[in-house]
Amino acid sequence: MGIDLSTNLCGIRMKNPLTTASGTFGSGMEYADFFDLSALGAVTTKGVAIEPWQGNDLPRVAETPSGMLNAIGLQNPGVKVFKERDLPFLAQFDTPVIANLCGHSVSDYIRVAEELNETPVALFEVNISCPNVKEGGIAFGLDPKGVEEITKQIKAVAKKPVIMKLSPNVTSIAEIARAAESGGADGISLINTITGMKIDVHRKTFFLANKTGGLSGPAIHPVAVRMVYEAAKAVKIPILGMGGVRTAEDALELILAGASAVAVGTANFHDPLAILHILRGIGEFMQEEKIEDIKTLIGAVE
């Protein structure tokens, strides 16, 4: 039986529903040594800022029993290097590029979007978990009014579809999702990491120099499934689901909950071929269940 793994994310056709989670794949240069990136539905890049970001002090990564904590601080070389180095590298693959945008102010986001408007980037994923320096360092994505406003301003200049990446560290993910939709977002992605902390009991100090970090990996997957489901019920725009995906079943859960596509993140660190194993598992599931088109599974759970 022939199966159709293709999906549509904000008007962009993906040959299959899998992409990489921002910050876990760079721009794919290291992973291209292991497999052809054309096998992916899309490549989602590490965060791109208008100027180079140094990131947080070391140590900034810690293992947990079922995942990891990171406080990298969105270290990146800036949009100029991204345009001159990363985009030409990615152009050799038959894979849409989703550029993850980050900034410390609304004008930062707008400037990055303007820099990338005339490039081959297919989609913008806007990370609104960044600290808003003009509001005392509080993340943009925690306040519905702030989410709506920053979405409106980015949409006013963006020439690519805009996906707003939502934080799970909120009271109501449905309210935040509706705010992004009201602001004109073409789609949303969720979940970003959950804030956590690790203490070194022998040294009696914080393990991470930043004290707190973002928890990712299998531990957060049930939270991601619940939030994708709640967001899907609240909005009509498509969802890129993520959070602790390491098996085909994990990815299928998010799709059944309402995600049109799924990003694989922390699993890439454990196994650089993880996303290919997941993709093969989805195909095998569809063959066994006699499902011809994966799009029929999107939001199928009631």
Task: Explain this structure.
This protein has one domain: TIM Barrel. The chain is 30% helix and 21% strand. It contains eight helices and 18 strands. The strands form five sheets. It has an eight-stranded parallel sheet. It has a four-stranded antiparallel sheet with strand order 5-6-16-13, with no helix packed on it. Helix 5 packs parallel to helix 6. It starts with 6 loop residues before the first strand and ends in a 13-residue tail after the last helix. The model has no long low-confidence stretch (mean pLDDT 95).
Average residue pLDDT: 95
Low-confidence stretches: none
Strand order of the largest sheet: 3-18-17-12-11-8-7-4
Main β-sheet: number of strands, strand sense, barrel status?
Answer: 8 strands, parallel
CATH homologous superfamily heading: Aldolase class I
Output the helix-strand order.
Answer: EEEEEEHEHEEEHEHEEEEEHEHEHH
Query: How many domains, as an integer?
Result: 1
CATH topology assignment = TIM Barrel
- The structure class reads alpha/beta
CATH class: Alpha Beta
- Outline type: globular
Number of helices: 8
Please state roughly what percent of the residues sit in beta strands, choosing from under 5%, 5-15%, 15-25%, 25-35%, 35-45% or over 45%: 15-25%
Assign the CATH architecture. Answer: Alpha-Beta Barrel
Distance between the termini: 27 Å
Rg, rounded, reads: 18 Å
| Number of distinct beta strands | 18
Q: Roughly what percent helix? A: 25-40%
What is the element layout, followed by pairings?
Layout: E1 7-9, E2 12-14, E3 18-20, E4 43-44, E5 61-64, E6 67-70, H1 79-90, E7 97-101, H2 106-116, E8 123-127, E9 131-132, E10 138-139, H3 144-157, E11 162-165, H4 173-182, E12 187-190, E13 194-197, E14 199-200, E15 205-206, E16 212-216, H5 221-234, E17 239-242, H6 248-257, E18 261-264, H7 267-270, H8 274-289
Helix pairs in contact: 2-3, 3-4, 4-5, 5-6, 6-8
